[in-house]
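REVIEWER CHECKLIST
Item 1: Sequence provided? yes
Item 2: Single chain? yes
Item 3: Sequence as submitted:
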Amino acid sequence: MRYKTLGLVTLLSALLLACASDAPAPRSLVLQAQALQALPGLPSMSASVVVDRVILPDYVKRNPLLERIAPGELNYRDSARWAEPLGEALPRVLADDLSALLGRSVTLTKLRPQANAADPAWLLWLDVRRLEADAQGQVLLEAHWSWLREGQGEKPWQHGVFQAQASSRDPERVAQAHSQVLADLARAVAGGLRQGQ
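Item 4: Structure as written out by the authors:
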């Protein structure tokens, strides 16, 4: 009887391994900078522009694509994952979008040039409150941000909510909608820098 049980367990384990090997690998998704046009009428600016601090909620930092299925409930789609942590991807793509909008290079804190006391850098602080899709593929981004001139006082914080509708629930389309709301945020952020100069 003992050998039969052991044989049955071995057979079940082999079947489970066979089923697991047939499961498709998770799809890998990426945030992408958008083809944005430079904002018109921007004054020339010699100061460096730096995406300095970006805060993401912990629930957004997980790699599976997430959906909000109820006001207090999230679903993580294990069949689709971000190819890199959003904590790394979002600041980089935001810097790329801002570079296009401002017509100049925007860097990240870890790549920033030396501080220049004569021409202090503009530093962007960003606090992302929500970044998620719903069950219909609509992506929502809610954030607060502020531009600070290095060595000077804090500027007033701005707030925005940005939405983009994916053409389907296909993970690639939902990822594109994430990139779109990030581009919309970049437009609002770039406009705030223009006003602050």
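Item 5: Key structural point noted by reviewer: The mean pLDDT is 87.
Item 6: Recommendation: ____
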